[in-house]
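Checklist before submission:
- one chain only
- standard amino acids only
- sequence pasted in full

Submission:
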Amino acid sequence: MSATANQFGASGNTKRMLAADVGGTHARVALVDATRADTLEVVHYQKYACADFPGLGAILKTFVDGLGSSAAVNDGAIACAGYVLDGAIINPNLPWRVVLDTTRAEVGLRSLEFVNDFEAAAHATPYLKANELVPLTPVRVGVAGGPTLVVGPGTGLGAAVRIPTATGSIVLATEAGHAAFAPTSEREIEILRILRRHDSHVENERLLSGPGLLNTYVALCQLRGVKAELSEPAAVTQAALDGSDAAAREALDVFCGLMGSVIGDMVLLYGPRGGVYLAGGILPRIKDHLLKSDFYARFLDKGAMRPVLERVPVMLVDNSQLGVLGAAGWYLAHGQ
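Returned file contents:
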């Protein structure tokens, strides 16, 4: 069913594939050229609202049909949160069921593979350009050939570790977002007490995610004795940035500081001497706020381990096509 890395594409020496980054709200689809071994080029790219289509197959077919016969493509990879069971993607946030063989047949592909979204993101990092990375720490270059960590708040909190080897890369997908939230300030302790009223286990992503930002905002409104006027994460972000809601502003401050603390913990756990890449749709939007926040101070606040953290660069990824690059990078790395 799978083609080798040198077999996919239209014709001749051109190697092209379909790559998709699929979430509950949007599907991002690209035609990716991998003719050069060290470069992935996005030739065509489209973003689709999932609710506008009856299934993923219809989205991919719309994209492929729009390419025309001159850009024939035979193989593809899907990056998506979740995992595959009996050929179907298990992800409760998708608006429809995705069966890989059925989708492959609908689109007319020779092969269609699945990769976890953060495993894909880790495979994308070698292909990022310098102008797509915003440094969040004074040190900008990690240990050459060292492991790297990719972390991203979205619907949840994803994390993966990429370990370079002599024959390629090994990527370890993690569930770090489900590790227990450890407050380090009195305010965070107060927030934890409120969140524990609903669940005895409060994980990191209950605060460090889009829904987590909203959870924090609602908790802070309770602590301030005011009504929570906002009901969507994007509204909380906007109100924080424009200064129209004091609780929203405090929620974003808590979010940035806590992210520094949690990522510092991950660096101590996983040892990514090559650096940390922060991904996720919310982060580029709050970039200026993040740079002015206590993110870096909290990142370094690890007692005797501070000198270790000072040598690890943390970079914000500002590339909306990270998911499709990762799907293609994973496909190549696995010799599909």
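Reviewer check: Residues 16-124+321-333 form a domain with the Nucleotidyltransferase; domain 5 fold (CATH 3.30.420.40).
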